[in-house]
Amino acid sequence: MCGIVGYVGHRAAQPVLVNCLKRLEYRGYDSCGIALLGKDVEIYKDAIRIEALEKKLRPHINKAGIGHTRWATHGKPSQGNAHPHADCTGKIAVVHNGVIDNYLALREKLTQEGHKFRSDTDTEVIPHLIEKYFQGDLQEAVSKAIGDMSGSYAFVAIHSDWDGMVVARNESPLILGVGDKENLVASDVPAVLDYTDRVIYLEDGDIGVVTGDGVRCFRNGKQIDREVHRIPWSIEEAQKGGYAHFMIKEIHEQPRVIRNTYKGYISALEPVVNLGIRKDAGINDILFIACGTSYYAALVGQQVIQSLTQIPVRVEIASEFNYSDTVLGRTWVIVITQSGETADVMRALKKAKEVGCRTLAITNVVGSSATRLADETLYITAGPEICVAATKSFIAQLTMLYLMGLAWASGDIRSRVSMATELRQLPDKVQQLIDREEEIAAFGKYLAKYENVFFVGRGLNYPVALEGALKLKEISYIHAEGYPAGELKHGPFALLTPKTPVVAIAARDNTYDTLMANIKEIKARESPVLAIAEEGDIEIEKYVDFAVRVPKVSPIFSPIVNAVALQLLAYYTAKERGCSIDTPRNLAKSVTVE
Ligand code: M6R
After folding, report:
1. Same domain, 163 and 252
2. Residues 153 and 140 occupy one common structural domain
C-alpha cells in the first residue's frame, strides 16, 4: 500500500525523505513524490521510480518535508494523481494512505464552495478541507477536517505558515520516529531506522504534532502519552548486505530465524516448550484467521495443533471471515500476520473481540496494530522482511505453530521431548538445503520456460503446495495453481499437457503411496513431473522426471524443508525470467486496505 514519510529536524529534509522513501520501496508503488516546507510548499512528483524522481530534484536546504510512494486505488498512476496533493493556495500539502469513503460527497461540496480539484484521487479532499478550516492553527484545521471524513487514513499535512507537521490516523498504520533534535513520520518502521530506533505507534483517532523539538500526541483535543517502543532491528538487517535481492538474503537467514523463534521457549537443558501463554480450560476450539502466506501457515498449524493437542482447530481467510456468520462460541481466535497491519486481519480481530472471544496475535512487528488490539501476542522474531514475497516470516510462523502444538500437547512426554529436540535441529537441516541451492537453481532455469505450473501435495504438504504456487506466481508471473494431489482428477486434469509441469511434494508420510498413484495419473497425461523428495528416496525415481532433494526430517516437520526448497525454486525461476523479484508488479508488502 502507499508509503508515507515525513521529516523535521536539523538536516536538509530532501535527502532524508528520498532515503526514507527508498527504505519503503519494498512495499511496492507506482508513483512517488515529495513536498518541501519553506516560505511556500514545493512539490515534486510523478509516476516514476524514486531514483528517477531524485534526478529531477534541485538541491534544497529546507529542514522539513513529506514524501510518498503511491499504490493506486482511486485514479490511474500519473503525475496528477501522485502525492503530495495541495490545496488551492499551494500552501498546504498532504500525503495519505487509506481510502476516504465519502470523498465524492466531500468533493462535490468543496467544489460548490469554490475549491478546484486537479486529480482523480480521494486524497485531494484532505488538503482542501484543511484549507477550508485553517485559521492559523494547522492542528485545529486537521482536527476539523477529520471530523468531516469517513474511511481509513494515515496522513501527514504541512502548511507553509506552520512549523512542523500534523498527522492523523484511522485504520491505517502510522508511526512517529523519535530522534535527537529531529523527528520523523512513516507508515512503516524500516523507513526511519537510519535515524532512530525509537518509535511511537499512533492509535486510531490520534492526532500527532511533530516538530524538530519533539512529538506530541492528542486525542479528543487533549494531550496524551504514547509509549515509545525501541525496535530490535538493525539497519543492516534491512539492507541487502551483498545479496542480489532481499528475497534470497531472507531465504538464507532462515536457519537463524528458526533458532531465534524457538530460542526463548525451549530450554537448552530440558527440551520442553513453555510459551508463557496457557491454553485456557474453558476454550472449546481454536480459529486461526489470516491472509495469503500467513493463511497457508495457519493451514499447516491446524493439522499440527489438532494432532498434538486434540483441540479442534478451524482456519478462515480474514476477508471471508469478516462477511461470514462463523459461529464463535468459546473460541480462541488466533490471528497470524507478519506485518501486524493487514486491514482484513485487523477487521477480523475487532469482530472477534466485539463478541468477547479471547484473542492472540502471532506477528513479527513489535508494537504493530495487531499486538495492540489482541489480548496476547507471540512474536516470531524473523527480523525485518523487506521482499514483498514472504519467506522467512512463513518459516518462523511454522516454527511458532510447532511450538504451540508442543506447549499444549496432551500426549506422551517422551515423544514431545524428542519432537522438541528435532525442532532444534531444523536450522541445520535448512542450512544443508540452502548449501545445495545451485542444484535448485538449475531446476528454476528449467521451469522458467513454462507459462503454467501445478503444485500438488497431500496432508501437511497440501498447504505447502499452495504456498509454492503463490511464491512462483507472485515473483515470476508464471500462472501457478496449488492443489491437493487427489483433486487434479476432479477437473484440472483437463489442463495437463506436456507444457504444464507439475511439482509434486513427496513427503515420506502416510500419503506417500497414494501420491505415487497420483503422479502416475499425471504422467499418463504427459506432464513433466518435478518431485520435492527426501534424500535417499530411491523409489521416487521410478515415477518422476526430476527430483529436488531435501534433507530427511520427521514427516511432521517436512513442511519446513519442502517450503524452503519451493522458495528457492521460485526465486531462481523468477531470476531466470529477469523479474523484479523484491517488488513484484501490482503487489504491496503490507496490505492496509480491505
Ligand atoms: O502481513 P501479513 O502476514 O498479514 O500479510 C498477509 C499477506 O498479504 C502476505 O502473506 C502475502 O500473501 C505475501 N506477500 C505472499 O508472499
Report:
1. no
2. yes
- pLDDT tens, N- to C-terminus, the chain (594 residues): 789 999 999 999 999 999 999 988 877 788 999 999 988 899 999 999 999 999 999 888 889 999 999 987 777 889 999 999 999 999 999 999 999 999 999 999 999 999 999 999 999 999 999 999 999 999 999 999 999 999 999 999 999 999 999 999 998 889 999 999 999 999 989 899 999 999 999 999 999 999 999 999 999 999 999 999 998 887 777 788 889 999 999 999 999 999 999 988 987 666 678 888 877 778 899 999 999 999 999 999 999 999 999 999 999 999 999 999 888 889 999 999 999 999 999 999 999 999 999 999 999 998 889 999 999 999 999 999 999 999 999 999 999 999 999 999 887 788 888 899 999 999 999 999 999 999 999 999 999 999 999 999 999 999 999 999 999 999 999 999 999 999 999 999 999 999 999 999 999 999 999 999 999 999 999 999 999 999 999 999 999 999 999 999 999 999 999 999 999 999 999 999 999 999 888 887 778 777
Whichever domain contains 553, its CATH number is 3.40.50.10490
Give the residue carrying C-alpha cell 490511474.
76
* 322 pocket-lining for ligand 1 (C-beta < 6 Å): no
587 assigned to some structural domain: no
Is 520 annotated in the active site? no
- Does pTM top 0.90 for this prediction? no
**Containing structural domain, residue 116:** 3-231
Q: Looking at ligand 1, which residue's alpha carbon is closest to its atom 11?
A: 292
Give the chain's domain count.
Answer: 3
User: What do you get for the CA distance between the two ends of the chain, in Å?
Assistant: 11
DSSP string over 185-220: EESSGGGTTTT-SEEEEPPTT-EEEE-SS-EEEEET
The verdict on the CB of residue 337 being under 6 Å from ligand 1 is yes
Confirm or reject: Cβ of 294 under 6 Å from ligand 1. yes
Which residue has the least CA distance to atom 8 on ligand 1?
292
Rg (CA), the chain: 25
Q: Which of 366, 400, 431 is the last residue before a domain boundary?
A: 431
Q: Choose among 166, 122, 164: nearest CA to 143.
A: 166
Annotation says 91 is catalytic: no
Name the nearest CA neighbour of 425 among 550, 258, 272.
Answer: 258
Same domain, 81 and 19: yes
Which residues lie below 8 Å from residue 490, measured CB to CB, with a gap of 6+?
Answer: none
* The last residue of a domain, from among 204, 231, 258: 231
- Phi first, then psi, for residue 5 (nearest 5°) are -140, 155
Q: Is residue 447 part of a domain?
A: yes
